[in-house]
Amino acid sequence: MSSEILVIGATGNTGKRIVKRLEALGLAVRPAFRESDIPFDWQQPATWPAVLRDIQTAYVTYSPDLAVPSAHGVIAAFVKAAEVAGLRRLVLLSQRNQVNAQACEQLLKDSSLAWTILQPSWFAQNFSEGGFRDSVLAGEVTVPTSGAAEPFVDLEDVADVAVAALTEDGHTGRVYELTGSDLLGWDEAVAHIAQVTGRNLSFRACSTQDFQQILRSVGFPEADAAFGATLVAQILDGRNARLGDGVQRALGREPKSFAQFCREAQAQGCWAAEPVNA
Ligand SMILES: NC(=O)c1ccc[n+]([C@@H]2O[C@H](COP(=O)([O-])OP(=O)(O)OC[C@H]3O[C@@H](n4cnc5c(N)ncnc54)[C@H](OP(=O)(O)O)[C@@H]3O)[C@@H](O)[C@H]2O)c1
User: Fold this and answer.
1) Sign of CA dihedral 7, 13, 17, 20
2) How many whole angstroms from 258 Cα to the centroid of ligand 1?
3) Which of 10, 101, 191, 244 could form a disulfide with 177 if both were Cys (CB 3.0 to 4.6 A apart)?
4) Which atom of ligand 1 is nearest to the CA of 62?
């Protein structure tokens, strides 16, 4: 067995931060994505054994999303392949309160693997690196929300917890609900960004149908726009309007606040017209 830690989704939001931390600890990493040295594709199970060969510990983020109904069959097959390959420890990036994701989590709980499940809230960096950065730069953030508050989590906290679960004892069999330190309305979050950046920025709540149209307009195929809009509306319907304690339980410290995220993103130039690569 190799001492390499497998990171699936190694170029993504969480994966790239986890790889950076593991390498800084002097640990060997096997990054996996569709064009990695050993290519990995969720849609091509024939690619899985080579990536899993001799690996004991893995971080797994599923793309496009564990909420997609077809994820269950793929994760079921992947967990079997991992068991056959001799994987021992698996840290899964999931999400909060989503029925299809919960069914995928159950596959892990029913397996022979030592598992840890991460359930993050909405990533704060969606505003600075993800799909909502363009909205910030355009001056209006629009989402389908009932007005419920969201405890935006900083991706640096998610990565810290993932690395702890991958490298330390004491995290097996734990489900960590990862949120930031404060529950904020979307209008309040957007006001924080406006204040820190000095931008003229507003927030608008919209219907699910309007959000579907926005997704279509930025290039989402029809079916993905419909699914994505419904999923976002569900996430923001009030079911997740509470703080979690996963960062505290995993790391023994408080999570970062949204205000701290805003200050750091601004200092890194994330909202400059030409962003500095975070
Ligand atoms: N955004 C949020 O606020 C939020 C909140 C909670 C949970 N989540 C969960 O986060 C997960 C996504 O994680 P992330 O944000 O870290 O990743 P991400 O930024 O979406 O990146 C996806 C990663 O997976 C790879 N990938 C894409 N398609 C693939 C395929 N068919 N086979 C193999 N690899 C593939 C990508 O690389 P290549 O394209 O180069 O292959 C990339 O490394 C989702 O399941 C979502 O539910 C997100």
Assistant:
1) positive
2) 22
3) 244
4) 45
Q: Is the CB of 66 under 6 A from ligand 1?
A: yes
**Confidence at residue 131, expressed as pLDDT on a 0 to 100 scale:** 87
Q: Check pocket membership of 15 for ligand 1, CB cut-off 6 A.
A: yes
d(CA 21, CA 159): 8
- Per DSSP, the three-state class of 115 is strand
- 10-14: long-range contacts at Cβ-Cβ below 8 A with a sequence spacing of 24 or more? 10/36, 12/61, 12/63, 13/123, 13/125, 13/129, 13/130, 13/155, 14/59, 14/61, 14/93, 14/155, 14/158, 14/159, 14/162
- Cis peptide, bond prior to residue 64, ω within 30 of zero: yes
Q: Is the dihedral of CA 226, 232, 237, 240 positive or negative?
A: positive
Q: Is 156 in the pocket of ligand 1 (CB under 6 A)?
A: no
Domains of the chain: 5-120 (3.40.50.720), 123-153+180-241+256-278 (3.90.25.10)
pLDDT above 70: residue 250: yes
Q: In this predicted structure, what is the pLDDT of residue 276?
A: 61
Q: Whose CA is nearest to atom 7 of ligand 1?
A: 95
Categorize the per-residue pLDDT at 240 as very low, low, confident or very high, splitting at 50, 70 and 90: very high
Residue 129 token pair: 């690196």
Which pLDDT does position 130 carry in this prediction?
87
Residue 32 near residue 55 (C-beta atoms within 8 A):
no
Distance 62 CA to ligand 1 centre (A): 6
Q: Whose CA is nearest to atom 1 of ligand 1?
A: 123
Count of residues in the chain: 278
| Whether the CB of 120 sits within 6 Å of ligand 1 | yes
pLDDT one-digit tens code per residue, 41-70: 999 999 999 999 999 999 999 999 999 999
